Every structure is written in C-alpha cells, then in structure tokens.
Amino acid sequence: MSIAETCRNVKSAAIKLAACSTEIKNSALAKIAQELAAHKEEIFRANQEDLRRSEAENIPMPLLKRLKFDESKLDDVISGINSLIRLEDPVGRTLLSTELDDGLELYRVTCPVGAIGVIFESRPDALVQISTLCLKSGNGVLLKGGSEAIETNRALARIIISASEAAGIPKGWCSLLETRYEIKEMLKQDEYIDLIIPRGSNEFVRYIMDNTKIPVMGHADGICHCYVDSSADPEMALRIVIDSKTQYVAVCNALETLLVHRDIAKTFLPMLKKAADEKQVELLGCSETAAVIDVSPATEDDWKTEYLDYKLSVRVVGSLEEAIDHINTYGSGHTDAIVTNDRGNAARFMSLVDSGSVFWNCSTRFNDGYRYGLGAEVGISTGKLHARGPVGLDGLVIYKYLLIGNGHIVADYAEKRRTFTHRKLNRDFPLH
Fold first, then answer.
1. The overall pTM is greater than 0.90
2. Quick one: which of 276, 230, 195, 227 has its CA closest to 11?
3. CB atoms inside a 10 Å sphere around CB 270
4. Most C-beta atoms within 10 A of its C-beta, which of 100, 172, 285, 292?
5. 121 and 240 assigned to the same domain
6. How many C-beta neighbours within 10 Å does residue 75 have?
7. Section 26-31 average pLDDT
8. Could you count the other beta carbons within 10 Å of the beta carbon of residue 431?
9. Residue pair 258/313 in contact by the 8 Å Cβ criterion
10. Is 204 in a helix, a strand, or coil?
11. What total of structural domains would you count in the chain?
12. 265 and 193 assigned to the same domain
C-alpha cells in the first residue's frame, strides 16, 4: 500500500472515530492496557533485540536509556492508560453558547483535529502514550518512531491496533511508518494529514516545517534553566537543581543550564560542586563560577546545548533581569525555573520568561503530561499555536461552530426586518 493510500485510510477512519462514543473509546483503551500486559514477554523480547543491535552500533548512552522498555516502563504506560480512561472526554464540550436571535443559537463545540502524523524519538513508551491520547481525543494517527526501536515499536503498534479495532474503533485509525522515505511521502499528504507533530532537535523540526504544507506543532530542544535567586534557601535550591539535572538525564525537561545570583554564589556553588561530584555530573562554568569552584570553562555553544547527559553549564549573574535575559536569549521555550523566597521576584520571573512552562521552587522534571494530569502527552510544544507546553487531550482537539435556526435567513437582518440579540446562553449543545 502506498503512503498516500495509508494516509487516506487514516483520514477516513479519523472521520468515523470522531463520532465514537466515550464508552467505546474507554473500552478500547481498557482492552489495550489488558493486551499490553498479556503480551509483555513478546514486547520485552523485541526490546532486547533493539537494545542488542543498538549497543553493537554504538548508539549513545542517553539514547539507549530512552530505548529500554522493561517492566517498569510497561507499568508506567498502563498506569497512563488507566489515568486516560478516567479523564473527561475532550470531544463534544461546549465552549460557548450564544443566542443570535430568538430561535437562532450558536454553539462552539470541541472536535478532534483529524489525522495527525507524529514523528518521535527512540522511546517506545512514547508510541503508547501518543496512540492512546489520539484515540481518546478521536484522532487518527500515523506513527514514526526512531529506527533503533523498530522491533519494539512493531510489537506495540500491532497490539494496540489489534486490541482497539477488536473493541470497535474504526479499522485503519492508526498506522506505523518505519522509513525516512515514508516520512518524506507523508509530508506531501496535505490533502489527508491535518497536523504534524515532530519531536526532536531544532534542526529536525525546522526541516519538517520547511518541507511540508501541513501545519506543524514543533517540539524542539529542551534547553531548560534554573535560576537560583539571591534570597533562595540554599538547601532547597540544591535539592531542586540536583533533581532537575539527575533524576533522569536523557529527557527534554532535564536541567541543562544553571544560573546563580552573584550574592549567593560563594555559598551555593561549593554545595553544588560537592553534590555534582557525588552524582558524577560534569560542571562547565563562566569565569565567575571558575573563581569559586573547579569547573571546565563554558563556551558560547554550551549555553545553547541540550546535553541529555551528566553535564551542566553554570553561569553567575548579577540580577534577576540578567537571568531572564539569558533564558530568553539561549532557551528553547521549554521549561525554566526560579528558586527564591522573594514572591515579587518569582512573579516577575514567571511573567517575563517566555517559555511554555515556568516554575517557582520546584524541579523542571515536573513538566510532563502525566504529572500535569493531562493523561500523558504527544509532545511538549515550544511554539505558540493553540497548544503550548505538554500537549495532552486538550491540545489534540480544536472546535467547530454549530448554528441551529428555524428558517432564519440573512436577508431579514440586512433589510432590518429582524435584529440580533447576541445574548449569552449557559447551556450545552443540545444534539449530543
């Protein structure tokens, strides 16, 4: 089957899926969770094959960590599916209701985007999260994972597609792509594909944007910052910084650059150095940082780098404004945090830092669809489309306007025989 035919089939199924009831969708999700657990040994064998091949090909360690799909990852994705089942259906919610005139009522109601193409990295658990989120939100999906996870992705997609279709989801709603050629062909299918979500580097996202007419929701680098303000509690700041950097280094919400106010640097940086050495984190720093602790020199490129490894860039700044300026200059708009006891500084930081998620006194690792209660995520959008930050269920629906009349025609209003009332109504769309 050609890619055009595959895309057409996904689009056709997506139209039918948009009308599926919450009960059918939740039943399908429950069936997927059940079948993933029942076929776990098949999934683990496929993953071991991917790991052995990737190790032989000298895949970088951060990618190997993302690639591993074990009992813990399986438990996580099943918990995510069960959480998704409990969430309200995002489709068919009334966002606005207005009486335009007596008997003429306008409703703005949520609906699925349609057919979505998602290109993601080596994490096989992302395939489960993306496909189940698309199912719950009524969207058809084309999935393209990293080639290093090809066997795991095949096993997961086969189980998910089979289980969901057995539960009544329209045949063809989900399809797995495997080659770069298929990506190039998918990018041409603007007749059938409504949205592309690429997860990867800035260069990769830019390539996708430059080579398709389809709208793109970009998930670019995670160059995340933490700023330790002059009034910060040093012990609290250290706990937050170490968790942000080391709780799991190979993810987009891990800390990459630390900014420290000059007034607290001599107290905080030695604490940081001791903790970093214990965690085997390599520190790179500016000249002021190097004057306080032993670090390798940081270059201009380090401020722009997503390490995804046990490496952290450190810069001493003289003010809150300097920290904000650094973040808005070098950051990727992903996740940035401030540690401070000054409420005014926190408010100013959260207002002026131009990122999808901005935190006060907590780890950057909290930026996650599951932790936000969104039912996992298809990605984290760093752009400024209808969805920003973790893209969960709400980010996968748009809306349509639905107008109900009783023989109303525009000529009556143009010729002043009738006038609009434009009265707000507090009611749901009546035809669900």
1. no
2. 195
3. 12
4. 285
5. no
6. 12
7. 98
8. 9
9. yes
10. helix
11. 2
12. no
pLDDT in tens, 165-183: 999 999 999 999 999 899 9
Torsions phi, psi of 396, nearest 5? -105, 10
* 247, 342, 379 from 359: Cα distances, Å: 17, 14, 19
Distance from CA of residue 317 to its chain's centroid? 31
Question: In this structure, which amino acid lies at residue 216?
Answer: V
Give CA separation, 28 vs 17, 165, 418, in Å.
12, 8, 49
Beta strands in 91-200 (DSSP E): 94-101, 104-112, 115-119, 140-144, 174-177, 195-198
Q: Whose CA is closest to 253, among 314, 197, 332, 178?
A: 332
Same domain, 146 and 235: no
Shared domain check, 206 and 73: yes
- At position 78, the amino acid (one-letter code) is I
- 385 is a domain residue: no
Least confident of 36-50, 368-382, 400-414: 368-382
pLDDT exceeds cutoff 90 at 382: no
Measured between alpha carbons, how far is 235 from 237 in angstroms, rounded to an integer?
A: 5
Q: Which helix (H) or strand (E) holds 57?
A: none
Quote the radius of gyration of the chain (alpha carbons, Å): 24
Q: Where are the alpha helices (DSSP H) in 18-58?
A: 22-38, 40-56
Same domain, residue pair 311 and 198: no
Identify whether the C-beta of residue 292 lies closer than 8 Å to the C-beta of residue 314.
Answer: no
Do 259 and 168 fall within a single domain?
Answer: no
Between CA 123 and CA 146 the distance in angstroms is: 8
Distance CA 429, CA 122 (A): 42
